[in-house]
Design goal:
Elements (H helix, E strand, L loop, with lengths): L3 H4 L8 H32 L19 E7 L5 E5 L5 H7 L22 E5 L5 E5 L22
Parallel strand pairs: 1-3
Antiparallel strand pairs: 1-2, 3-4
């Protein structure tokens, strides 16, 4: 054998027309395989159950604790009364059967929100003294205190 055979181009055993058909057949088989794979994957994804989310239960507002206040001073029946959580000074006075002297209401802020554990003392001169109570989330002038306000107040 001659060393020149290594440098000569080798002849392909298949004619040019047969080589084209083998390349086309290879690509066609590959395309069919990819199509089958994608179809199977799509069918598998379609068969999976769709997640519906998680149910979240939020407690009702009516579950809030009542505000228990002690009403003293110029009311008909001083005592301790359980009021709704959003009760006002007016509600506390009405629970105590009203003022002894109706003219005492001129110096009072009857719309002020009461707090749980608060003592409401109505003086004979028409003044109002609020003592103690759990922080209600509102300041004396009605603004919301972000440090003590609960979720329903915000």
């Amino acid at each position: 054998m001659d060393d020149r055979d290594d440098f000569l181009p080798r002849r392909d055993p298949l004619p040019q027309s047969d080589r084209n058909w083998s390349n086309i057949a290879t690509w066609a088989v590959a395309a069919i395989a990819i199509a089958v794979f994608l179809s199977a994957g799509g069918a598998w994804l379609a068969s999976r159950p769709v997640p519906r989310g998680v149910e979240v239960l939020i407690p009702a507002e009516s579950a809030a604790h009542p505000a228990t206040v002690h009403v003293t001073g110029g009311v008909t029946n001083p005592g301790v009364y359980a009021l709704s959580p959003d009760a006002r000074i007016l509600d506390a006075i009405e629970s105590a059967s009203g003022l002894i002297n109706p003219e005492l209401s001129h110096g009072l802020n009857l719309a002020q929100v009461v707090a749980d554990g608060q003592q409401i003392n109505i003086s004979d001169g028409g003044g109002l003294t609020l003592i103690g109570g759990v922080a209600s989330g509102r300041s004396q002038d009605g603004r919301i205190d972000l440090n003590t306000a609960n979720a329903s107040l915000l």
